[in-house]
Amino acid sequence: MLGQRTIRKILSKVLVLFAFTYISIFIFSIPYGYSWEIIDGRFVSTYPLYMIFKRCNSTFISLLELNLGYNIKGKALNKVLFTSFMRTALLLSSSIVLAFVLGVFKGISDSNRGNKNNVFAKILISVIPISIPDVLIAAIMQSFAIWLNQRDIHIFKVAGAGTLAHSFLPIISLSILPAFYIARITSLEVNDCYKKAYVLTALGKGCSSKRVLWNHVMRNAIKSIIEGLPNITSMIISNTLIVEYMFSYPGLTTLLMDHIAIADRRSSAIIIVFIGSFYFILNGLYRCISTLFNRSNRREAV
Amino acid sequence: MKKLNMSLLKNIKKINIPLLIGSIILIFIFGMCLYPEYFTEADPYGRERTQYKYENGKSILVIPPIPPNDEYPLGTDHRGRDLKSLIIYGSKLTIFSALTVALIRLIIALPLSIAAAYKVRFTNGFINFFNIMFSAFPLIIAVIVLSNIALFQDIFKDATYVNIFLLSVLGWSRLSHILRTKIDEILMQDFIEGEVAIGKNKLEIAVQNIIPHLIPSIIVLFFLETAMVLLSFSQLGVFGLVFGSGYEGATGEVGVPIEFDWPSLLSLSKYFYRGDYSYLSIYPAIAFAFAIIGFNTFGEGLKIEFEKENSRVITFIRAMPSFLSPIRLIYEIKNYKQYKRSVLGKVGFYITILLIIFCPKYESPYGFDENNAFKITKELTDDIFKGRLTGFQDKDNNPAQYIVNKLKEYGVKAYGDDYILENTIQEVFNIKYAELSMIDTKTFSEKKLKFRQDYIVASNFNYDGILDAENIEINDGIFENMANEPDYYKEKALIIDIRSMTQKDFISLNGFMKYYVQPNVVIFIENWKQQEARYKSDIINKNMEDTVIISLSSEAGDELLRMGKCKLKISVNAEKRNDVIGRSVVAYIPGIDESKKNDFVIIGSNLDGIGYDLDEKYPSAGRASSAAISLEIARTLIQNEVKPDRDIIFAFWDGNMTDDRGSKSFFYKYLINRNYRIFYIDLMNLGYKSSDKLMIDNTKIFPNSKEEQDFIKRLKKNAKRNDFELVYGTLYSPAVIDFTGSDSQPLLIDSFISNEIVHTPKDTLEEIDTHSIKQVGQMLLDTLIDSFSGGSNK
């Protein structure tokens, strides 16, 4: 049986999801020409507010009914969305995995592991990479791929989608910044763990540094690293916009920008809800993994 | 020695390297923001243009964007603007916008975080929800969508403010989250319990305990948040969200961006990011990276500094209010013996501040006599010259002769054989009066439209007649009908609404009417709006030479269409003259540097005006004032015996709006096919009292032309000295067409005023004042002396 607390928690999450969906649709339901004018000393809106709510409610209800309808070009939105959703899902999941693996290893190598030398240098190593805008990373990647192509090395496709070669560069571009963030979290967590008594005891007992790192430090640090991931998710979603745009990758964010460009407000609203769903799905996933780790750690402790 | 090395190494290890690196980068960036002119030679508005260049004996067509090369280390954008200058000049708007956003976010986040930490109802949930909302809904999408809504544009007027507002109010939640954690930590401290015990309320604890303890964190977060904002700017830029204040143009001209900023540079590069033009996105992105690294390392460095137990930074920050307190200073002065050192330090500090504030204003050693310039303006706008229209002047008593007399009086030499450069102008005209009335055929009521307000005449001959109005619409039968019954259409006043017509249809209809119908009267309903002032700019439609052509404003056109079947009473009074003599005046002050004998500076202004109507006077005082300023500059240079390094030519053009303008004649007589390097300064309409800004157009000056770019830098400096603001725009002057080439570069200067003055009857001496003439004249005079005489002779 689910406890009352759990039900309340689930209900609050559902409420947040509904609120997010409604507000997102509302933002897209405001017409570009909407403004206020002063007539006879009173503020009068140039577009009836109830019409905006009416439009918003209609989109919200059709979304709840899973009736996505057609976009302005007359294409069935569910079909267009599905293909793009899958492409973005591939891009996001691959880059998160890559970022996690790279980030954790880099974080371990960046950490002091009890050694207090080169503190400033380590800070610089972690700060400088996260300061590089994703635009620059994507532009450099693209220039690099063009440079390779000009020398008849066709490992990477510069733009588009369809083959694995098309996805390499977007995945790499998308995973670099999060990898550095994860490295930063990992390095801080590892450093914290090395101050803990159980690590000092293990070291005192003569455990090898490798054993201490993987069996004592990382086992405890990994939970905190996973808990830090939700902060990175929003960054990855924002970066997806840039990466998909610059690599002409026909994913969900490209679809959104295309629909914004043709002023298809209803479709844009629905797409943004789907983009937001990535955030909720990924966060839920991190929580599940974190809980699993917790349980497994507790079981071992018992 | 070894000991010394060890201690040195120890000291180096103690240095807060992130803070040091961050400080260096930030000093560099703020230096760039405040003094961009010291970081680059070129002004960001200067442009390379499509032209042939000779390299190694070969002619190469150069089309911007130009990739990085020796002249342009970062290349140019597709408008030919130097990317290095754009980045340097763009830093100001970008960095200060980012700082503002970070500051507003902090201002929003701080009270909310305190309230959340105190468990005030809903605040915690509000912060959490906002955080989730704009984590799932990418902030940049929200800003892109909302910034397009008219409401924000109406409130803030400027794209920069809209973006700053949206980024601030939608992006504070992450900061609030961090601050709340910090406040929670402070509230857990023992001393808070003590404060509660002595009876402090929550507000007192927040103000007296939480905020002072939070200051170091706030400072650190401010810099880190600025870095985050810059990151958002870079993303917004890619999607074309321009931060600059949009576009600005002179009267009716196409504009260019007023300001430059890094996001705009990324938005321009979106068309070119692939292939050879990747530098267009890479360099602005590097600028972003550099600034973000600066703010992040500085923030992290400060954090380390604040976390030190014996941090001097905190002591310094805490001591600041006490140091600046005047009450404390008074107390210390009263106890001078005790606080001698402190008093001396503080008094020194305050004296320095006062000196900076009340620094005496720069006085030029070359006094520009504004009263003399005003007197000349008054005489040029006198009724005896009847609006100074080319070809309608008295042979002996004309504006050219007046200028010549003045030049002779001042001792300025004639350029060439004579001061007056005569040339034949094929055709001149003056549309003095016109009448257009709509007569309802049922009620016979007559509605008279206002000349030059509701309509303008675009043909230059006399006409009188009453015709039936015939509305022409593009449909399948119209061309056939016209071809079958040309006489029917010829006898009508043809009404053509071109507002919704395609260009293709318009061209076809025009051509058809010209060859088959040759109508007496054609009235075009166009998109321009009814004007309050009678704007006179007689541009002739040469497509149908024997047809009266009238251009109707959109409002008047709607009125005519609503009337349906009606008659039109049309009367045009135009005076036309052929093969008249244009009289431009050209004089000069010779240069002394032999190596610059092929270099010229030409200061051009218009001698002519637009002529009077039968019932209205158009003195064109702004043009007259420009000529007067030019004359006064010449007089001051001669009087002060200033020896320029190159020839400075003072040109007063006649026939400005004709095909046979004086500037063209001058160019063909003296300059064509000669290896001259010319810097042409066109003075358009100056000296208006309602204008505290001056518009300059330097878009036709190459970014790599050092002397011209230096001139612009000095012009900016002298504008500041004379309390004048320079704005940038695209201006049009026919004379400039003659001085735009690879060896001649023009600069246009005009007043920044409303369209309701220039070319209208309001353009009178009453609009001109000595103060404005002095500002512009002194600025130009000082800049000319600074640039072309090797500095002040006095």
From TrEMBL, chain A:
It is a multi-pass membrane protein. Residues 102-295 form the ABC transmembrane type-1 domain. This is Binding-protein-dependent transport system inner membrane component. Gene3D superfamilies: MetI-like. Keywords: Cell membrane, Membrane, Transmembrane, Transmembrane helix, Transport. The keyword Cell division does not apply. GO terms for cellular component: plasma membrane. GO terms for biological process: transmembrane transport. The keyword Metal-binding does not apply. It comes from the Bacteria. It is found in: Cell membrane. Its main location: membrane. The chain crosses the membrane at residues 14-34, 89-108, 120-148, 168-186, 228-247, 267-289.
Automatic annotation (TrEMBL), chain B:
GO terms for biological process: transmembrane transport. Residues 95-299 form the ABC transmembrane type-1 domain. Its main location: membrane. Keywords: Membrane, Transmembrane, Transmembrane helix, Transport. It comes from the Bacteria. Belongs to the binding-protein-dependent transport system permease family. This is Binding-protein-dependent transport system inner membrane component. It comes from Lutispora thermophila DSM 19022.
